[in-house]
Please model this.
Amino acid sequence: MRTRTADWFETKIRFEKTMDDGLQKKVTEQYTVDALSFTEAESSITEEMSSYITGEFEVTDIKKASYKEVFFSDADSDDRWYKAKLQFITTDEKTQKEKRSNVYYLVQAGTFSGAVKHIEEVMGTTMIDYVIASVAETMIMDVFEHKVQPTGKPASAEE
Model:
């Protein structure tokens, strides 16, 4: 399990897709990209999708993701994305009251129970007291990380 902290943007792409029965259908798919701005997010998803989609497509929506960290799995069977809400538990020194702060993560897993297992695997290495408040499957098809060449310049799609 690998984690990555970044500024993530959720994007939606609308295009004509060839379905299993051979018919063309207009679909909207959701993807997440690592970017510093809305402009960079649009540029990044356009570059990524141009190698997968033949024909025209349009970016119909871009929004800043509520999560800053993504848990990536290396297992081929982990083909879904789950949004997890964790509550970090701290105790106020003065009042001795328990305080919970919500933190969101995007987790790659094959099943709901797999997502919970991955969360516990990553969070088990920390000293933070937490509870899993919710885990829900998303419509996200894939997550694209920012590509950087060893020289520090962004890579182009042809490489």
Residues 35 and 41 are 5 Å apart (CA to CA). The longest strand covers residues 80-91. The beta strands are 2-5, 8-18, 24-34, 57-64, 69-72, 80-91, 98-109, 130-137, 140-144. Helices lie at 38-50, 112-123.
